[in-house]
Specification:
This protein has about 170 residues and is of the alpha+beta class. It has two domains: about 60 residues, no CATH class; about 90 residues, no CATH class. It has three helices and nine strands, in the order αααβββββββββ.
Length: about 170
């Protein structure tokens, strides 16, 4: 499981999960004669106060997992900057194109020639091949028309810029 959150919130979540796992482990390893006895008092979790965080706010975060501040909207979830998934990039130095799948978010592309191209103003590109394969890419291309190679059969697929939709679409 992967979650994207601030460091302070991640620490609080980790401590809470560790505490719950510890409690579950204690319950499953009790001998039979101890099961009849009254349960021991569980120590209160340590509440850490991070820089810039008030003690009362830290307690609220520990209980609910979300900081509570007066007269403030909740912060938007920030996903790391960059682009991921299927990308079709053109090198700014040599002009060579390459399609690939980025498993992590990237903000620059390094070509085989060694040049680095920043990923800015990426636009959608829809590819539909005669073999039946369809794919959605993000690209930095600026030409009106060009061919993209199908990654299944290797056939060229002609795409054209659709100014109304702001994306590249296959020519029919």
């Amino acid at each position: 499981m992967v979650m994207d959150m601030e460091e302070g919130q991640a620490r609080m979540t980790f401590h809470k999960m560790a505490e719950l796992m510890w409690l579950i482990g204690e319950k499953s390893h009790k001998p039979a004669e101890e099961a009849d006895m009254e349960p021991e008092e569980v120590p209160e979790p340590v509440r850490e106060v991070y820089p810039g965080q008030k003690k009362q706010e830290a307690e609220t975060v520990m209980e609910t997992g979300v900081p509570e501040k007066e007269n403030e909207e909740p912060a938007p979830k920030i996903i790391s900057a960059g682009y991921g998934g299927y990308l079709y990039m053109k090198c700014s130095a040599c002009g060579k194109t390459r399609g690939f799948c980025a498993k992590t978010r990237l903000n620059h592309y390094r070509c085989e020639c060694g040049a680095v191209t920043r990923m800015e103003s990426m636009v959608p590109l829809y590819m539909r091949c005669e073999c039946g394969r369809q794919a959605r890419y993000l690209t930095n291309m600026t030409e009106d028309e060009f061919d993209i190679t199908c990654y299944d059969c290797g056939a060229p697929v002609a795409v054209r810029w659709n100014d109304k939709k702001g994306q590249y679409e296959p020519m029919c």
